[in-house]
Design goal:
The complex is a heterodimer of chains A (233) and B (109). Chain A is built from 8 helices and 8 strands. Chain A is of the alpha/beta class and 233 residues long. In chain A, β7, α7 and β8 form a beta-alpha-beta unit. The N and C termini of chain A lie far apart (59 Å). Chain B has 109 residues and is α+β, with helices and mostly antiparallel strands. Helix content of chain B is 27%, strand content 32%. Chain B is elongated. Classes of the chains: A alpha/beta (233), B alpha+beta (109). Chains A and B meet through β1, α1 and α6 of A and α1 and β6 of B.
Chain lengths: 233, 109
Amino acid sequence: MCATCGCGDTHVHAHGHVETLEQKVLAKNDALASDNRAWLAGRGILALNLMSSPGAGKTTLLERTITDIGARRPVAVIEGDQETDLDADRIRRTGCAVVQVNTGAGCHLEAGLVRDALITLDPPAGCLLLVENVGNLVCPALFDLGENSKVVIISVTEGTDKPLKYPHMFAAADLVVVNKTDLLPYVDFDVERCRSYARSVNPGVRMIALSATTGDGVGAWYDWIAATPVARA
Amino acid sequence: MHELSITQSVVDAVCERAAGRPVHKVTVQVGALTAVVPEAMRFCFELAAEGTVLAGAALEIQRCAAVVHCRDCGADSQPPDLILLCSCGSADVAVTAGRELQILSMEVG
């Protein structure tokens, strides 16, 4: 038995003294996120953090949004993926300013990566900044990027019960978008039941159902963007 | 997984405070609502601590249960899952515990 602490280990181990830290684990990320938030507010930029499983249609929704509203409101994009510039290339083809962040083995964007991207991108004052997070319905929910709002996107091919299976992500959402409504005739998906599941983990959360491919229902998405207040510095 | 990033943050913060002194133990508080899996954190801690003053240090994880305060009936209750309801059935609650994710202390020297 260890003579110092009484534990059952037979080997000798060192003991020192205990120092209290009481420091938030995510303090560094939160501080950087706070800096990002202040920087964006100072420029009157509305920043949205778009999160979803891989393949839910984030990039397609961005392409449609840029095409539909880009003429009347400047849009800038930060793309997050483990590898490649493929999504940034798609955005670039719309004529929109974009920066690609590659996380390598990383599964989510963090505030420091967004800060670096903002320096490169230098989005204009008053623009709409769309941050497409790494496709992942788990980890991104934990990491504040400094955004105005978190938008969680699922598609009708992913199952009505998604909000119950990934409650942390849906609890963090400011808006839930159900995409690919053009496929509703071919899949077993109940929009209203999905809405009630989302509200069971996030009371009162708004849900918009649309098709980024056909454009059906996107008006409500643009109305929500227009009605979302930009934080002031 | 995000536990690697989170655990790296723990190691970085403790290294900074330890300022070169060997660390024998780190105690962290992980709330039930944080989406952090303690076993994953333990696994990552060993990797992240390698080559630092935390190498070989023990990691103690204190779990904090979720507690909600009901705005309807005024009671405090511990929801068993992530559907945050008061025991009276109301969803109009404020989370008073369960979101903690902090480094409480370190044993150095």
